[in-house]
Amino acid sequence: MAKTRPGRAGKVPVAIWDLLVWAFQVECVGLDFDEMGSTSGARPGVGMEYILMKRGDLGCTIDGGGRSDPHPDADLVASAVSCLPEGCGGRGMAACIAELARLGRWPDQWQHMTPSCEPAAWKDHWRGRFAEKSIWDGPGRWPANQIGRDDGYCCRVVFTGMAAEQARARRAWLNWWGALLELRCTFQMRCDLTGFMITDEMPPRAPWKKRS
Fold first, then answer.
1. Who's near 186: CB < 8 A, 6+ residues apart?
2. Cβ neighbours of residue 84 under 8 Å, at least 6 residues apart?
3. Would you list the DSSP string of 91-160?
4. How much of the chain, in percent, has pLDDT values that exceed 70?
């Protein structure tokens, strides 16, 4: 997004992710988990909508970084992220969203989950780096009187990127996506941003699926 302050020429249509990047990367707002007593249990029944409403009444006082006060809309974004309900990941997800938005990056762990087999340990040698070998004492070992110099050794390996790890990375993406959906719906229902109008645009729900 352009590094400009909206609100002087009508509301700008913007996707929820672009709004988050603008608030945390451009306006440099920060999270305030102690705001209004927090929603993690100290004030049961206080929801995100109530927090945003009170923020508007009080004039938006979240401390932001940079050389000037952040835009009021950026303060509201920080409030909404800080008050994510536990069902959407709570404080942990809020911190994750803020950090990724500052970097302008989506979660990418799922992209690196390809099955692979590698040696469990490596050994440095003057001729180079080799997989560490050990004598195999299990079933199928060569008879002792028939073992040559290179017989009877094995290389222990580890498997990565298997189904369980892929599922874990995909769940993390879906949790992040669901939290963004919660924020999008909140701002679309409240319509209290002065410079932005939230569109329906979202990151892909399951980017690992091949498009037909």
1. 48, 49, 52, 80
2. 39, 48, 90, 91, 93, 94, 97, 179, 182, 183
3. HHHHHHHHHHHHHT----GGGG---EEEES-EEEETTEEEE--EE--STTPPPGGG--TTSSEE--EEEE
4. 66
56-66 pLDDT per residue, tens: 554 444 444 44
Distance between CA 60 and CA 32 in Å, rounded?
12
Burial 102-121 (b: 16+ CB within 10 A, else e): beeebbeebeebeeeeeeee
DSSP state of 14: E
Instruction: Give the model confidence (pLDDT) of 171-210 as tens digits.
Output: 999 999 999 999 999 999 988 899 999 999 999 998 888 7
Please report the pLDDT score of residue 123 as a whole number. 81
Instruction: Give, in degrees to the nearest 5, the angle at Cα 30 between 76 and 22.
Output: 65
Q: Which residue has the higher pLDDT, 70 or 40?
A: 70
Length of the chain (residues): 212
